[in-house]
Amino acid sequence: MKVKNILLVEDDYLDIESVKRALKKLKIEHNLMIAHNGVDALGILTSEDTKVTPDVILLDLNMPKMNGMEVLTIIKNYYSLKNIKTFIITTSGEEYERMAAQNLGVTGYIIKPLSFKEPMSDDVALLLKELTSEI
Questions:
Q1: Which residues pair with residue 5 across a beta bridge?
Q2: How far, in Å, CA of 63 to CA of 39, rounded?
Q3: Is residue 129 exposed (0-12), middle (13-18) or buried (19+ Cβ within 10 Å)?
Q4: Number of domains in the chain
Q5: What residues make up the domain containing 117?
Q6: What is the distance between the alpha carbons of residues 20 and 15, in angstroms, rounded to a whole number?
Q7: Is 99 helix (H, G, I), strand (E, B) or coil?
Q8: What is the pLDDT of residue 57?
Q9: How far is CA 68 from CA 3, 9, 74, 78, 92, in A?
């Protein structure tokens, strides 16, 4: 299986550990980059020193310095980043946030806690498919 490059943009330590455990439990070969806020995420994504472009971005909405919606807006308007599969992972079930993310071209919208147990939401199943696909 191809190693997946994943950028996790999350400010909560427990949520970071939860994602790490889920990836390990699912035996997904991965390189996990972590940004604790939107500013750091954009720094990773646009840095000349960054040698790896993520295959998937897992993006929290509620973060300090720059929220996830602002980051998503920039990613989707940045030519070299706009095609990266981006999943919102948030505690917010607000419909207006989901619609705003969909309008910006998000791949999926997952309500925390992230769970790969049955029954899975369509967005969790899509994320799992992205993480386990060879391409």
A1: 31
A2: 10
A3: exposed
A4: 1
A5: 4-132
A6: 9
A7: helix
A8: 95
A9: 25, 8, 10, 15, 12
Spell out where 11-80 has E strands: 30-35, 56-59
Q: What SS3 class is residue 83?
A: coil
Tell me: the pLDDT tens digits for 2-43?
888 999 999 999 889 888 988 888 888 889 999 999 999 999
- CATH number, residue 37: 3.40.50.2300
The pTM is what?
A: 0.88
The b/e string for 68-81 (b: 16+ C-beta within 10 A; e otherwise) is: bbebbebbbeeeeb
Cβ atoms of residues 10 and 89 within 8 Å: yes
Sign of CA dihedral 27, 33, 37, 42: negative
